[in-house]
Write a structure and sequence with these properties.
This protein is α/β, with parallel strands linked by helices and 337 residues long. The chain has a single domain, classed as NAD(P)-binding Rossmann-like Domain (Rossmann fold). Helix content is 42%, strand content 18%. The chain has helices at residues 12-24, 64-73, 88-93, 96-115, 150-169, 191-200, 220-233, 250-260, 286-292, 300-313, 315-323, 329-335; strands at residues 2-7, 28-34, 54-58, 78-81, 120-126, 173-178, 180-182, 205-208, 214-219, 238-242, 247-249, 268-271. Strands 3-2-1-4-5-6-10 form a seven-stranded parallel sheet, sandwiched between helices. Strands 7-9-11 form a three-stranded mixed sheet. α4 packs parallel to α5 (150-169) and α6 (191-200) packs parallel to α8. It binds nicotinamide-adenine-dinucleotide and thymidine-5'-diphospho-beta-D-xylose. Thymidine-5'-diphospho-beta-D-xylose binds at residues 86-88, 126, 128, 180, 190-191, 194, 206-208, 213, 215, 250, 274.
């Protein structure tokens, strides 16, 4: 059995990771440590919550005593750190919690990992640490770190710290830097679910600036399969970029969603730009493809249709987010046991 601590496993990517790994393998024991911030939703994990090789612990990765207790109680030998404050717009409104969770929290996990002789520490980072591209070029692992937002600078600081723990202490770490994800269970503050829900609710779709900022989109399961591979096969001390080579301007994503939902472009409203808005992200993922044999499996058009369909079929899931009821699910779940 591999005892893994998955942090932030009630968020979008972490919950998809846990559901995916528990469905596909029986050699893992997963402890999910999540603070259940506004972005954490235990309803994402309904298919996993009763499995015997899964435990949920509500708690903060900055809590040293709790983290130490978990490492010891569950003999943790692997850490996959998804926990983060993840929304750029929120980091612009207030950065403190981004540095607390993304930097201090990661430090707490690294120190506990060091004390407990772990076998692998996977830091789930982001392409945003590289800053912004012009019209040409791709981010490689050699691209200088040049973050532009409080969010991306907190993630960049964490990356540097994680790599330094390998250099200094020989801690077996790996860092992944993935592009923009889409799929089920994404919190409706991010572009794709926000635009789907606004369309379904007859609201305007706020496109920042000229709508020509470009993001490189990947289906969440492709990201999670890459993370699993990097965890098991990634060379310690290394960084792996993850991306599916599907660049799209924001306005084209929004128009695609409207077309799929049979609604007119009149719902689009151009609004004031995000301060410091990065213009373009695009990933060169040849390192993970050549060295670890990963490649994206999902075709963008199919996975995007599937994602839209998921939001259409799972209205109660997002209605409970809008009403705030999703935050009560934790109590229901744990008082019934
Ligand atoms: P998310 O905001 O949906 O989920 C984050 C989770 O972390 C939530 O469940 C939240 O409750 C938990 N959390 C926050 N602070 C915590 C703390 N102090 N202690 C314990 N748990 C805490 O984020 P996401 O989109 O799933 O992203 C997951 C990771 O992937 C992040 O590290 C993010 O930087 C990275 N990433 C995201 C994307 C993307 O497109 N969403 C792309 C590349 C990398
Ligand atoms: O209402 C909106 N209107 C709009 O035009 C929102 C929410 C976003 N946008 C634009 C801003 C970006 O150019 O859409 C693009 C995507 O925005 P987000 O969904 O906020 O994602 P982004 O800022 O690109 O960051 C995401 O990808 C990298 C994740 O939130 C990060 O956690 C990840 O590291």
């Amino acid at each position: 059995m591999k005892n893994i601590l998955v942090t932030g496993g009630a968020g979008f990517i972490g919950s998809n990771f846990i559901n995916y790994i528990l469905k596909n393998r029986d050699d893992v024991f997963v402890v999910n440590l999540d603070k259940l911030t506004y972005a954490g939703n235990l309803e994402n994990l309904k298919e996993s919550e009763n499995k015997s090789n899964y435990r949920f612990i509500k708690g903060d990765i900055t809590n040293r005593e709790l983290v130490d207790y978990i490492f010891q109680k569950y003999s943790i030998k692997h850490v996959i750190n998804f926990a983060a404050e993840s929304h750029v717009d929120r980091s612009i409104l207030g950065s403190e919690v981004f540095f607390s969770t993304n930097v201090i929290g990661t430090n707490v996990l690294l120190e506990a990992s060091r004390r407990n002789n772990i076998e692998k520490f996977v830091q789930i980072s982001t392409d945003e640490v590289y800053g912004s591209l012009g019209a040409e070029g791709l981010f490689t692992e050699q691209t200088p770190i040049s973050p532009n937002s409080p969010y991306s600078s907190s993630k960049a600081a964490a990356d540097m710290m994680v790599l330094s723990f390998h250099h200094t202490y020989g801690l077996p770490v790996v860092v992944t830097r993935c592009s923009n994800n889409y799929g089920p269970y994404q919190f409706p503050e991010k572009l794709i679910p926000l635009m789907i829900l606004n369309t379904l609710n007859g609201k305007k779709l706020p496109v920042y600036g000229d709508g020509l900022n470009v993001r490189d989109w990947i289906y969440v399961i492709d990201h999670n399969k890459a993370a699993e591979l990097v965890w098991e096969k990634g060379k310690v001390g290394e960084v792996y970029n993850i991306g599916a080579s599907r660049e799209m301007a924001n306005i084209d994503i929004v128009k695609l969603l409207l077309k799929n939902l049979n609604k007119s472009d009149d719902l689009i409203e151009f609004v004031k730009d995000r301060p410091g808005h990065d213009r373009r992200y695009a990933i060169d993922s040849s390192k993970i493809q050549n060295e670890l044999g990963w490649k994206p499996e999902y075709v963008f058009e199919d996975a995007m249709s599937k994602t839209i369909e998921w939001y259409l079929q799972n209205k109660p899931w997002w209605e409970r987010i809008i009403s705030g009821q999703y935050q009560e699910y934790y109590k229901t779940l744990y008082t019934n046991r």
